[in-house]
Design brief:
Length: 193
């Protein structure tokens, strides 16, 4: 098991802060910032626990992709552009993830991107994101509509968006100041609570 604890990781504009494709990873009490792509990218056969971390100034915050089994709790996300937490299925596998007790603040201004705080999706259009739990998160938007053409807009789209998920639970979340919807469940999702 790789353990990262009490670290400040400044990606200084490189693509990634932390990247793993296999094994067990534990990230605790860290500050991760300044990445061009993802602050944390877990892609493949990874088991991960991320607790009490601060993520800031990035294109994307944390991505779980493929057959990742991950839990992210009590973290804060600020100054992100596209997704704060992305749960992404592939044609072969979907992540099993728990997103619990985190605080998401408004994104930074900038063009493009989906501006979603928590998103579960599958570009391959396979409903294999199983057992997803989105619990007790605080999604605090700026109360402005999302405008993908404006470099000045810090608005958000759907703060929580679930697609291609089965047997999932979304409960106890607070959504304030969203630009479009607080939460959307769509596209071949089933048996959600």
């Amino acid at each position: 098991e790789a353990v990262l604890e009490g670290l400040t990781i400044d990606a200084s504009g490189s693509g990634f802060g932390i990247k793993a494709t296999a094994g067990c990873v534990r990230i605790v009490d860290c500050e991760v910032r300044n990445a061009k792509a993802y602050l944390v990218d877990l892609n493949g056969e990874v088991v991960a626990v991320i607790e009490n971390c601060a993520f800031s100034n990035t294109m994307h915050g944390v991505r779980f992709r493929g057959s990742v089994d991950a839990r992210i709790t009590d973290c804060t996300f600020t100054d992100w552009l596209h997704y704060a937490v992305e749960i992404q299925g592939t044609a072969e596998a979907g992540p099993e993830a728990t997103i619990d007790g985190n605080t998401f603040r408004a994104p930074k201004p900038g063009k493009g991107g989906a501006r979603q705080m928590i998103v579960a999706h599958n570009p391959d259009k396979v409903s294999n994101i199983t057992g997803l739990q989105v619990l007790n998160n605080r999604c605090l938007g700026p109360g402005k509509y999302y405008d993908r053409t404006s470099s000045e807009s810090p608005g958000t789209a759907d703060q929580i968006k679930i697609s291609y998920a089965v047997d999932f639970v979304v409960s106890g979340n607070l959504s304030v100041g969203g630009g479009e919807n607080g939460m959307t469940v769509e596209l071949d999702s089933a048996r959600g609570l």
